[in-house]
């Protein structure tokens, strides 16, 4: 079988021996051997991607958000390409939880892959019933709660945009989930203050946070002069949203440093993943980029290990949140190294680091 | 093991062997390693465009026109494309030896009849690209192969000479009458099906053409297989963008992924008039008054 890697980061210039570095991560009590996962809705249930890399080697497969009943989703076109990204409006098409358990989760279990099950619903009751249904199912590493869905009981307002509705969902899921299975709340960036939502769901019992979901966007086809998507608006994903995602992870990690974060949004290379880790993510999901490079999750994991080794880290966990260290603190040995593009390391020349305003401000401009 | 199946898709960085013009189209030949060995008629390939740092994230899908598993370059495949957008323009600017990342072979290929029956192959524009490999295999099974090609103008017909070489009969239509009959393929299809006593119809082209071909074929009692073209984000079955309503063996309509459940569908199973929508009786369609 031929597997190729598109050269996208300096680490793939030669085939370096795999760096000896502890890549394991602890997601609210669940130990994963690798910090790179798939993203919900961008990997199905792992079967298709298993043609391109060994699905058991990544941290876990995060499955497409599943609902109680079968769902046909929206009409087509469901996607539009945008600069370094895409819009999607799938409408959570899926087979419903029973078929999912029989076919998809059963396949993952048989294959020996770890599964994070993403759930979605239109009401707190839907989420309660889903969590109860999953409660006695074995081999679920964690539950990710997709709260970026419209609440049918509140005129379609998205749960993730309302701290109270988001907390209600998370509390219901936490209450009905087996104690050993962590519940991750997946946050939307389409809010004024993501930290407030994060606090709210953590108070409601979320063991961890996944961020970010897509940003609401729109494309108008200039030939037909109508919206390009049948669903009119869609979720923006891909490298175009990465800076927004890194900002969200950084802000939330600063506010809630002990809550594990599964970071995502436009990760294409190991260095992209490293940004999320430095911002405070304990693990990352690779989503849209898998459409471009179906071996991306495995490649990003290799590249991330190399990037950590290049910077002198002995383990992934040492790097989590490393970008938050105080500017005035005495730099550690590794921080004193600078890296040239060929990967060689030199001792840093004495550079005066200005004492920047330690207060992190959102949206400094405009 | 599932991950190592010899039938699945692979990702290969190939090298451009040649790029030539054919009327309004470009014909690209690229080394493709194991993809070439595994290709069957009707398979497609997803090509990444714009180079490794491309801002065009989504691969472009193309029917595989030809596949050669041996030769001076090892395995090669050919695709035929019209350059009309950013990605295809980029492809049209490729040079010999340029690297190109390919994922394939993708989709379900055409089903071949077991008996030596009479077949009509209908293609609109570059839709003829997959038809020649198909014709070869049909002929190898003793089938009679009749080809019907249609396009807006002569320049948008692909493979007229090749079709003449392999087909028992060839019929051509152009919208402007620049070659063959003036009009559409569906104007001449009913007659052709009667004349050739067709058992099976294979079609590839625009959706409206496929819908018409499927209807005419059913009316003639012929079995039709249509290669659809839906926009695809992943091409490998993981995103759910490429769906259309298809009736299953159990009579239930489902929104199926054209990249893995297609792109070849039985013509009488696709709900052509509902493509683009979710019919209200489809499995999991929104319930009126519910949610
Ligand atoms: C199974 C299949 C087989 C195909 N075979 C051929 C072929 O043999 N020859 C050929 O010329 N074309 C073929 N197409 C269409 C081809 O994929 C599009 O022409 C191409 O993607 C356009 O890319 P662009 O960058 O030039 O256009 P842009 O408009 O810039 O593309 C923007 C986005 O829309 C998608 N898109 C645009 N037009 C189409 C389309 N017609 N169908 C699907 N997606 C589209 C692109 O993939 C891209 O993601 C096939 C499509 C499918 C699904
Ligand atoms: C086609 C598509 C489908 C998605 N489906 C889901 C979904 O079902 N549930 C969910 O929580 N997120 C879904 N997402 C969001 C992704 O999981 C991810 O949060 C987002 O795309 C940002 O990461 P990325 O840029 O790496 O894709 C989907 C994204 C895409 C592109
Ligand atoms: S194109 Fe992604 S599922 Fe078909």
Automatic annotation (TrEMBL), chain A:
Its UniProt pathway annotation is: Pyrimidine metabolism; UMP biosynthesis via de novo pathway
| Gene Ontology cellular-component terms listed | cytoplasm
Which biological processes are named by the entry's GO terms? 'de novo' pyrimidine nucleobase biosynthetic process; 'de novo' UMP biosynthetic process
Extract the signal peptide range.
none
Q: List the cofactors.
A: FMN
Comp. bias regions, Acidic residues: 352-366
The Dihydroorotate dehydrogenase catalytic domain covers which part of the protein?
24-308
PROSITE patterns associated with the record: DHODEHASE_2
**Keyword Oxidoreductase, does the record have it?**
yes
Provide the residue span(s) of the region labelled Disordered: 331-366
Does the keyword rRNA processing feature in the UniProt annotation? Answer: no
Q: Which UniProt keywords apply?
A: Flavoprotein, FMN, Oxidoreductase, Pyrimidine biosynthesis
The Basic and acidic residues compositionally biased stretches are 334-351
A Gene Ontology molecular-function term?
Answer: dihydroorotate dehydrogenase activity
Q: Pfam families, from UniProt?
A: DHO_dh
Q: Which NCBIfam families match?
A: PRK07259.1 (NF005574), pyrD_sub1_fam (TIGR01037)
| Protein known as | Unannotated protein
UniProtKB/TrEMBL annotation, chain B:
Gene3D superfamilies noted in UniProt: Dihydroorotate dehydrogenase, electron transfer subunit (2.10.240.10), Nucleotide-binding domain of ferredoxin-NADP reductase (FNR) module (3.40.50.80), Translation factors (2.40.30.10)
Gene Ontology MF terms in the entry: 2 iron, 2 sulfur cluster binding; flavin adenine dinucleotide binding; metal ion binding; oxidoreductase activity
One Pfam family it belongs to: DHODB_Fe-S_bind
Residue ranges annotated for the FAD-binding FR-type domain, each copy included:
9-112
Question: What biological process terms from GO does the record include?
Answer: pyrimidine nucleotide biosynthetic process
Tell me which SUPFAM superfamilies the record gives: Ferredoxin reductase-like, C-terminal NADP-linked domain, Riboflavin synthase domain-like
Q: Which UniProt keywords apply?
A: 2Fe-2S, Electron transport, FAD, Flavoprotein, Iron, Iron-sulfur, Metal-binding, Transport
- Listed cofactors: [2Fe-2S] cluster
CDD domains named among the record's database cross-references: DHOD_e_trans
**Could you say which protein family the record assigns here?**
Belongs to the PyrK family.
Q: Do you know which PANTHER family this protein is assigned to?
A: DIHYDROOROTATE DEHYDROGENASE B (NAD(+)), ELECTRON TRANSFER SUBUNIT, DIHYDROOROTATE DEHYDROGENASE B (NAD(+)), ELECTRON TRANSFER SUBUNIT-RELATED
UniProt-recorded name of the protein: Unannotated protein
């Amino acid at each position: 079988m031929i597997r190729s890697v598109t050269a996208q980061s300096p680490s793939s210039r030669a085939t370096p021996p795999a760096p000896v570095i502890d890549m394991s991560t602890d997601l609210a009590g669940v130990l994963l051997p690798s910090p790179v996962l798939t993203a919900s809705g961008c990997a199905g249930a792992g079967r298709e991607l298993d043609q391109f890399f060994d699905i058991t080697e990544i941290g876990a497969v995060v499955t497409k958000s599943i609902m109680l009943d079968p769902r046909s989703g929206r009409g087509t076109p469901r996607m539009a390409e945008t600069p370094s990204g895409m819009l999607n409006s799938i409408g959570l098409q899926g087979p419903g939880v029973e078929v999912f358990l029989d076919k998809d989760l059963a396949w993952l279990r048989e294959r020996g892959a770890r599964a994070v099950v993403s759930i979605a619903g239109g009401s707190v009751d839907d989420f309660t019933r889903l969590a109860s249904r999953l409660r006695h199912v074995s081999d679920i590493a964690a539950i990710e709660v997709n709260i970026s869905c419209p609440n049918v009981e509140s005129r379609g307002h998205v749960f993730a945009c309302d701290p109270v509705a988001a907390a209600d969902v998370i509390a219901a899921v936490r209450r009905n989930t087996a104690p050993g299975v962590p519940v991750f709340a997946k946050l939307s960036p389409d809010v004024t203050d993501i930290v407030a939502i994060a606090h709210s769901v953590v108070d409601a019992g979320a063991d961890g946070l996944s961020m970010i979901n897509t940003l609401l966007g729109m494309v108008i086809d200039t030939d037909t002069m109508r919206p390009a998507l049948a669903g009119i608006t869609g979720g923006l994903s891909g490298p175009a949203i990465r800076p927004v995602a890194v900002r969200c992870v950084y802000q939330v990690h600063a506010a809630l440093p002990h809550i594990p974060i599964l970071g995502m949004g436009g990760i294409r290379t190991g260095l992209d993943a490293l940004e999320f880790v430095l911002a405070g993510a304990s693990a990352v999901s690779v989503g849209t980029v898998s459409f471009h490079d179906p071996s991306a999750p495995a490649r990003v994991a290799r590249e991330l290990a190399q990037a950590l080794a290049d910077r002198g880290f002995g383990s992934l966990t040492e790097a989590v949140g490393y970008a938050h260290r105080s500017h005035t603190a005495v730099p550690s040995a590794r921080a004193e190294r600078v890296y040239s593009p060929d990967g060689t390391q030199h001792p840093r020349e004495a550079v005066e680091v200005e004492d920047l305003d330690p207060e992190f401000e959102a949206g400094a401009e405009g | 093991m599932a991950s190592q199946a010899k039938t699945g898709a692979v990702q290969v960085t190939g090298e451009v062997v040649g790029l030539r013009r054919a009327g309004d189209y470009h014909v690209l030949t690229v080394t493709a390693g194991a993809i070439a060995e595994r290709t069957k008629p009707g398979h497609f390939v997803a090509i990444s465009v714009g180079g490794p740092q491309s801002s065009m994230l989504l691969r472009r899908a193309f029917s595989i026109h030809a596949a050669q598993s041996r030769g001076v370059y090892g395995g090669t495949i050919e695709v035929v494309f019209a350059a009309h957008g950013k990605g295809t323009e980029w492809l049209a600017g490729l040079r010999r030896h340029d690297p190109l990342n390919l994922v394939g072979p993708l989709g379900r290929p055409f089903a071949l009849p077991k008996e030596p029956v009479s077949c009509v192959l209908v293609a609109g524009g570059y839709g003829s690209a997959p038809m020649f490999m198909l014709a070869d295999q049909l002929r190898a099974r003793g089938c009679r192969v009749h080809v019907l090609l249609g396009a807006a103008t002569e320049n948008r017909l692909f493979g007229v000479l090749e079709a003449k070489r392999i087909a028992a009969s060839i019929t051509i239509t152009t919208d402007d009458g620049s070659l063959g009959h003036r009009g559409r393929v569906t104007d001449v299809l009913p007659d052709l099906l009667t004349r050739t006593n067709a058992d099976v119809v294979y079609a590839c082209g625009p959706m409206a053409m496929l819908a018409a071909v499927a209807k005419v074929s059913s009316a003639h009692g012929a079995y039709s297989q249509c290669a659809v073209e839906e926009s695809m984000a992943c091409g490998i079955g993981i995103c759910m963008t490429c769906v259309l309503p298809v009736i299953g063996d159990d009579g239930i309509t489902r929104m199926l992924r054209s990249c893995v459940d297609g792109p070849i569908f039985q013509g009488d199973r696709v709900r052509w008039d509902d493509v683009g929508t979710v019919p209200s009786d489809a499995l999991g369609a929104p319930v009126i008054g519910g949610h």
